[in-house]
Amino acid sequence: MITILLVDDDPNIRRGLRMNLALEPDFAVVGEAGDGWDALRLARELQPDAVVMDIRLPSLDGLSAAERLRQSQLRCAVIILTLYDEPSNRARARQIGVAAFLSKSASADALKQTLRNITFDKGAQT
Q1: This protein's superkingdom (predicted)?
Q2: Which residues, including other chains, have CB under 8 Å from residue 21's CB and lie 6 or more apart?
């Protein structure tokens, strides 16, 4: 089972992602956050395999939150899922060490495959 924390400031986006991922027997959404600080707190509490996070978040943006997650002792993979698919955001995400960067215009299947690939790779490294 791949456990997932969803992070987006739009509750409708989180709801849609949750509903879509719930259709897969190997996924379990274990939590949701609407800002970067809540994401960090929930990631520590829930220890998910993956955090799917938007860039534009209130109080602490997604890339800053992802950087803090990568610097922590947590072993979760961070996937950036955003409308702001710009070269500068991709470059910063690479520098931080996020597992994947996807545009929200990508298919739901692309996210599902990415989740499966990165958690498989994470497991292989352990």
Answers
A1: Bacteria
A2: 4, 27, 29, 111, 112, 115
